[in-house]
């Protein structure tokens, strides 16, 4: 469902005569809903797939309640017990629980919380596309090196990680060492420090420079 269609339905809904019945503190959203869950390679992370795209660009990642203060949905999820991370991208919300708890009733609580609080995020300004000569990568300024790495992450990495409910944030570059931070399901996934890390490193070496090393921070 397109964003324009979602907003049109919301506008139409808002024009419907209101009843005198008491309203809940936060009414359940009748347009955007969780339609299914999807397991991820991380047993502690579950992807809640929505029926519409709520974030056009980038992602939202929260690891604490305080980080989610400005996001009503993220905050509401963190107020449930045993939540370690909330990751939002495109049309899904990946929730990571603590290893000591079981999904069981928690899965239903998260599902209902998302249904109740989910909203379309405001559109953000899209950065200009990068056009650089990667053959001279080692001569780039730090800023241009970071842009080149971001280009590869966007083109070859992030969409694949998103399928498993995760993501990656570029934290910096020191010499030939690229520092990354895993997000969502990737945050505590057993394969993030082995297979996933090697895949990212291989892509950066193939597309930018063979001397690059990737380190998870």
Instruction: Report the portion of residues in β strands.
Output: 15-25%
Number of strands: 8
**Looking at the structure, what is the overall shape?**
globular
Identify the CATH homologous superfamily of the largest domain: Scaffold protein Nfu/NifU, N-terminal domain
CATH class of the largest domain: Alpha Beta
Overall pLDDT score: 82
Largest sheet: 5 strands, antiparallel
Q: In terms of structural class, how would the helical and strand content be classed? A: alpha+beta
Low-confidence stretches are 16-27
Strand order of the largest sheet: 1-2-5-4-3
The CATH topology annotation of the largest domain reads as: Ribosomal Protein S8, Chain: A, domain 1
How would you characterize the overall build of this protein?
The protein is of the alpha+beta class and 217 residues long. It has 2 domains: 34-117, Scaffold protein Nfu/NifU, N-terminal domain (Ribosomal Protein S8, Chain: A, domain 1), CATH 3.30.1370; 137-216, Fe-S cluster assembly (FSCA) (GMP Synthetase, Chain A, domain 3, 2-Layer Sandwich). Helix content is 31%, strand content 23%. The chain has 5 helices and 8 strands; from the N terminus they run αβββαββααββαβ. The strands form 2 sheets. A 5-stranded antiparallel sheet has the order 1-2-5-4-3, covered by helices on one side. A 3-stranded mixed sheet has the order 6-7-8. Helix 2 (72-78) packs antiparallel against helix 3 and helix 4 (142-163) packs across helix 5. The longest helix is centred in the last third of the chain and has 22 residues, at 142-163. It is globular and about 50 Å long. The model is unreliable at 16-27 (pLDDT under 50).
């Amino acid at each position: 469902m397109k964003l324009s269609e979602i907003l049109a339905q919301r506008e139409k809904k808002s024009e419907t005569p209101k009843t005198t019945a008491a309203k809940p503190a936060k009414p359940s959203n009748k347009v955007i809903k969780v339609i299914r869950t999807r397991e991820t390679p991380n047993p502690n992370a579950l992807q809640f797939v929505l029926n519409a795209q709520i974030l056009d660009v980038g992602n939202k990642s929260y690891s604490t309640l305080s980080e989610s203060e400005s996001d009503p949905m993220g905050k509401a999820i963190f107020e449930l017990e045993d939540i370690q991370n909330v990751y939002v991208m495109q049309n899904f919300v990946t929730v990571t629980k603590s290893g000591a708890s079981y999904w069981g009733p928690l899965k239903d609580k998260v599902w209902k919380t998302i249904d109740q609080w989910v909203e379309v995020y405001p559109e953000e300004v899209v950065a200009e596309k990068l056009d650089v000569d990667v053959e001279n990568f080692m001569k780039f300024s730090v800023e241009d090196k970071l842009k080149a790495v971001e280009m590869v992450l966007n083109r070859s990495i992030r969409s694949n990680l998103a399928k498993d409910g995760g993501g990656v944030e570029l934290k910096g570059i020191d010499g030939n060492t690229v520092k990354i931070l895993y997000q969502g399901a990737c945050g505590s996934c057993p394969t993030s420090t082995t297979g996933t890390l090697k895949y990212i490193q291989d892509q950066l070496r193939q597309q930018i420079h063979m001397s690059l090393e990737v380190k998870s921070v």
